[in-house]
Each structure stands twice: as structure tokens, then as C-alpha cells.
Design goal:
- This is Heterokaryon incompatibility domain-containing protein.
- This protein has about 525 residues and is of the alpha+beta class.
- The protein folds into 3 domains: about 180 residues, no CATH class; about 120 residues, no CATH class; about 130 residues, no CATH class.
- The protein has 15 helices and 29 strands.
- The chain starts with a strand and ends with a strand.
- About 45% of the residues are buried.
């Protein structure tokens, strides 16, 4: 190929137990691809380097750097052994056999090349890494398909094994950006003959007969959502077939399904589900939680401008850029059920990152996984989230229908849904109860809070809308309106302290509310 240079080439037989180092001949800040034809037809690992992303059809790989270990009970299909990559000290060895399965899957998808981050990024070069991360979304977006390896690069996972793939931050962008994503897994039962189910679907094609198969990401998620189906393959009949590749926690599967079925990333439903995915997933460095999703929103921050633990600074930069580009503050939908980030109340509290565990927050009940705190994504998304602008300190200025409040008490019970049973006090005056139990008199159309101290407002931010996917069922929510409680701490500066869940009875009152400009800042 005239437009590329070969920066690495080695026979597979000589590759076993070696450390691959492409930095000797590669040039930083260029694109690289693995040649599947050379791999499959000539048993050679060949890496090409390009000055620009080529127009050739290529596949990308989505995997976890620390995946499943070697299965001592099944060593079949492991012919070539493994190799390591210089600089990739946190990753598993790369199985040459797994790479072969991936190359076959790529070719079956009409792609002659593969992009694998471990081999196609100079792992010991900080500038090349930063350059590649800024272009990561474009690399995946331009690929013909993404091949998902839930078990990692050490070996293929069986459908009845649990993996951490869906819990990792980077894997979200990797499957949302490409035109198509397919899950590659170990499969010894032959071709599919028959399948039947009531509420999910599943179909697959063999990749290497008798060893591996692949299915669409949607089918894998559907079969992993708790549903069982009847399946007959050439060498086995399953009366109750299901997948556990993505674990048994419903929230991770549901949020990704919501992104896929929410109308695409031009739609608020998908965008809000993507924010929720980001909050419940984890990564090695906190800042990667931002870098791993920024491309989904058309943002390309420079990784060299942020320290590895500066998730807050990177999140503010991402949010500000989204708003600057005309987007909405869709992260507020997820923020409704989380406490505010200290000092930046426009953002939800940013979870603690545990590279080998869950994303967690410290609550009154102790440290809890964020996935357990957030409500089920299938309840819906919030339509009408405001836009606005944000400065580099995280101060969010937006306009919203709002009304002044005065405090009148507190309830000891938990989460409150406001409807005709609670909307009037004993004197017949309109009131609202926040999710933190505080009770407020609401002054529709008023300009003052009738207080000599700092002001408080209820700011309406949208209406709950149900996802249309059959995966989430069909139900009617009589409490669709959402609002936030903001309290003034300096003249003209407010912080978010709670939220409101409001019934349909409040619609006429919301329509009568004046439009206020609110500066949502935060207490230090």
C-alpha cells in the first residue's frame, strides 16, 4: 500500500512469549492498523502506519485490559500462545489465538484490518497516547464494525461466564460510535437451528466453526437482561438459554439498552442514558471517565491539560463545551437522584473510581455502588432539560420556569411524589415536598420569596418520557414533572439542594410560572 508503511512484522511462530515494541520504527501521532490478511493467510503479525485514517474497511476491538484468566479445564484452541506489549504493564498478555478469532470475525464483516489499542497506540509515548485519545471516537466511528471481546484478550469467554466488560468506562464509547457492534464468544455447539422466546431475541453466526461465534450487541444484551429463551443448536438443545457475559446486575444492561434504543445520540433519551452509564462505570484513572465519553458529545479535550485524578475539572470542561455547542444539560437528569458535587452543584456527585470494583458514593448509609442508588433507567428520560452556559468554575447559568418558595416544615419519611394528596397544606395553600423531605410553600407568579433572608426557588427542568423499547415494557407514570430545589448562598448565586417529583396536577401551575435566569454555582 503506497499510503502506508509497515512498522512491525513478525511470524506468529516467533511471536510467542515475546514483548512487541513498535516504537522503534513507528512515528508518534499517526494511525496504525493490523493486517488481517497477512495474519490469516501468512501467519504474520503485520502493523501498517498511516498519516491519516485510511478509507479501507477496518474493525475495532472493545475489550477489558484485565479480563478472564486461563481456563485450566479448557486449553483447546490455544495453539499459538501469547505475547506482551512494551509499555502496556496493566494489561493481560495478548492471546494470538484470540487475535485470530477477531481477524476472522473482521474479515467476515468485510474488514481487512483491525485496530487494537494495545498494538496501535505507542504505549510508552505520552504524546502519542494523548493524540490517539483525542481521536478515539473518530477511530471507532469510522470503523466498519466493533468486535466486543467481553473476556479480554487472554481467551474467549463462554456465554455462561460473567465478565467486567460492561462495567468499564471506555467500552461505552467503543460500541456506541461504530456502525455496528458484534460480541465474539467461545461456542462449541455448532450452528443455530431454532430459537423461540416471548420477550427477547437471540441469533448468532459461527466465526471459527466448533470454536467461536458472534452475535449483535443488542441480541447479547437482550439475552442477558434476565429473559430466557428456547434454543437448539447442532450439538446441544437449551430449554432455558440465557447469557451472563455482562453480569447479573440489571442496571448495567438496562442503561446500555436505553442508549441503544433511545433514538441515537442526537436524542435526549440516549444522551441521558449515556450519562447514567458513565456514572455507574469505572476505570483506572478518574479522568478517563470523561475522556471515554467526550467523543459521544462531539467534544475533544486535550488529555495533557488534565491530571489523571482531575475528573471534576475535565467534567466541567466537557459540560461547558457541550453547552457552547448548543447542547443541553442532560446530566441534570441523572443528577436528580444523586447529591450535588461539592462546590459544583450543577453536576452530580462524581463517584469514587475503583479500578477493580464498582463506582461508589459515600451516603448516609455508607459507601454504596452508584448503580444501586440511581433509579431504574427504564422509568424514562426527562424531556425539556434546559441549555445555558457554564464557566470554567462550573457555574451554570440557565433559564427555566420557576417559582419562589418559603419553607414550612419537613417530613421524616423518604422519597415524596407530589400529587393532589399532598399539594395543599391545611389552609388550602399550594405546597411542594422535596425528595429530601423539606416542605415548601410555592408562590406561583410572585417575584419575591416573602423572606428577608436568602431566596429559594423551585426550577422546573422537564417531563419524564418513557422509552419506546419493548425491553422496558409499557406503563403510565402519573408523576412525570421534574424540578430542582435551588437556594441562594450569595446574591444571585444558587446551589442545588434537592429535587421534586410532581404529578400531572401541577401542569397548570408550571405553565403559569415566570421564566427566571438562575446561576447554579455551589458551596465550597
Amino acid at each position: 500500500m503506497r499510503d502506508s508503511a509497515v512498522v512491525y512484522s513478525a511470524s506468529l511462530s516467533a511471536l510467542q512469549n515475546t514483548t512487541v515494541d513498535i516504537a522503534v520504527s513507528a512515528t508518534p501521532c499517526k494511525f496504525r492498523l493490523i493486517d488481517c490478511t497477512r495474519f490469516l493467510d501468512h501467519d504474520t503479525l503485520t502493523i501498517h502506519e498511516f498519516p491519516y485514517l485510511p478509507t479501507y474497511e477496518y474493525a475495532t476491538i472493545s475489550y477489558v485490559w484485565r479480563g478472564l484468566g486461563v481456563d485450566p479445564n479448557n486449553t483447546s484452541g490455544a495453539s499459538y500462545g501469547t505475547f506482551t506489549i512494551k509499555g502496556a504493564t496493566n494489561g493481560d498478555p495478548i492471546s494470538i489465538d484470540v487475535l485470530r478469532h477477531a481477524c476472522v470475525a473482521a474479515v467476515q464483516g468485510n474488514a481487512k484490518f483491525i485496530w487494537l489499542d494495545g498494538l496501535c497506540i505507542l504505549q510508552s509515548d505520552a504524546y502519542d497516547k494523548a493524540w490517539q485519545i483525542r481521536r478515539m471516537y473518530h477511530i471507532y466511528r469510522s470503523s466498519a464494525l466493533c468486535i466486543v471481546l467481553p473476556g479480554g484478550m487472554r481467551r474467549l469467554a463462554r456465554v455462561d461466564e460473567e465478565t467486567t466488560w460492561i462495567r468499564r468506562s471506555w467500552t461505552l464509547q467503543e460500541v456506541l460510535a461504530p456502525k455496528m457492534a458484534r460480541v465474539l464468544f467461545a461456542w462449541t455447539y455448532g450452528k443455530i437451528l431454532f430459537t423461540a422466546t416471548v420477550d427477547s431475541r437471540f441469533n448468532y453466526e459461527e466465526v471459527i466453526p466448533g470454536q467461536s461465534a458472534a452475535c449483535s450487541l443488542e441480541d447479547a444484551l437482550s439475552a442477558n437482561s434476565g429473559s430466557y429463551l428456547e434454543l437448539e443448536a447442532e450439538r446441544k438443545y437449551f430449554e432455558c438459554f440465557s447469557i451472563t457475559l455482562f453480569g447479573r446486575e440489571k442496571s448495567y444492561v438496562s442503561t446500555l439498552l436505553a442508549v441503544l434504543n433511545g433514538g441515537g445520540l442526537e436524542n435526549a433519551g440516549s444522551i441521558q442514558a449515556a450519562w447514567q452509564c458513565s456514572l455507574i462505570r469505572t476505570c483506572t484513572y478518574p479522568v478517563d471517565a470523561v475522556f471515554s465519553i467526550m467523543g459521544l458529545f462531539g467534544v475533544h479535550l486535550d488529555p495533557l491539560h488534565f491530571k489523571p485524578d482531575d475528573r471534576r475539572g475535565a467534567t466541567i470542561a466537557l459540560a461547558a463545551e457541550i453547552l457552547r455547542n448548543g447542547g443541553r444539560a442532560d446530566w441534570l437528569a441523572a443528577a436528580l437522584d444523586l447529591p450535588p458535587e461539592r462546590g459544583v452543584s450543577a453536576l452530580p456527585a462524581l463517584p469514587r473510581i475503583n479500578p477493580i470494583g464498582d463506582a461508589t458514593l459515600v451516603t448516609e448509609k455508607g459507601e454504596r455502588p452508584v448503580a444501586d442508588i440511581l433509579p431504574w433507567v427504564g422509568l424514562g428520560w426527562v424531556d425539556g432539560i434546559p441549555s445555558g452556559k457554564m464557566d470554567d468554575k462550573g457555574r451554570f447559568i440557565f433559564s427555566s420556569p420557576a417559582a419562589p418558595l418559603t419553607p414550612i416544615g419537613r417530613r421524616k419519611s423518604g422519597r415524596i411524589e407530589n400529587d393532589r394528596k399532598t399539594m395543599y397544606d391545611d389552609t388550602g395553600k399550594l405546597q411542594v415536598i422535596a425528595t429530601n423531605g423539606t416542605i415548601w410553600r410555592i408562590h406561583i407568579g410572585a417575584d419575591k420569596t416573602h423572606r428577608k433572608t436568602r431566596r429559594s426557588f423551585i426550577a422546573f427542568i422537564g417531563t419524564l418520557t418513557h422509552y419506546t423499547s419493548a425491553v422496558f415494557g409499557d406503563f403510565f407514570d402519573p408523576h412525570p414533572h421534574r424540578a430542582i430545589l435551588v437556594e441562594e448562598h450569595e446574591d444571585g448565586k444558587f446551589h442545588r439542594t434537592s429535587s421534586f417529583i410532581l404529578g400531572m396536577e401541577f401542569a397548570p401551575y408550571i405553565e403559569r410560572c415566570k421564566l427566571y435566569e438562575i446561576c447554579l454555582a455551589g458551596l465550597a
